[in-house]
Amino acid sequence: GSPCFCALWRVSERWRANTGRPAPSADLRPLDYNVRTQGLRMGIEGFVVFFLVTALFSAAVAVVALRRRPDTAARPAGWMLLAVALWSFASAFEYAASTLAEKLVWAKIEYIGIETAPVFLLLFALEYNRLQYLMTRVRIALLFAIPVTVIVLAWTNEFHRLVWSGFSPPLASR
Description:
The chain is mostly helical. Helix content is 66%, strand content 3%. The protein contains seven helices and two strands, in the order H-E-E-H-H-H-H-H-H. The chain has helices spanning 3-19, 44-67, 74-96, 100-128, 137-143, 145-155, 157-160, and strands at 35-37, 40-42. It has a two-stranded antiparallel sheet with strand order 1-2. Strand 1 (35-37) and strand 2 form a beta hairpin. The protein is flat. The two termini are 14 Å apart.
């Protein structure tokens, strides 16, 4: 699934075309579920690594931001980055999960980051632009009303099917 593997695959195919016999590494075949993106093959493993790196980077920057509490907008930026880190971390494990039940659990965890990140982004923008007077406790609670509702609906989806009505495995790409 990595770019290096794809380059080896192309070399192997050229070897086969020029010599008429398989290359020594011809038994290495790309996985059926590889996704083609602008000519670059990146399998599920690539997505998992990408999301894990994103999660670690976001979490590290969030820790730095949260330690700088006196700085303007540091706290909402830190919380937003923690939400993005949770979202990315859960996405990595959702891609890596092998069963539908595992994917569902990670998708539900993912919803926590998906739904809270935009609210923290708005809070960051307001504080960065020195509009803190608009952020009362009641308004912040109202901003979180819809995300909390969606998160609760996602976690209780088995009872009402309002978030997901059904599931199907992704189609394998050629």
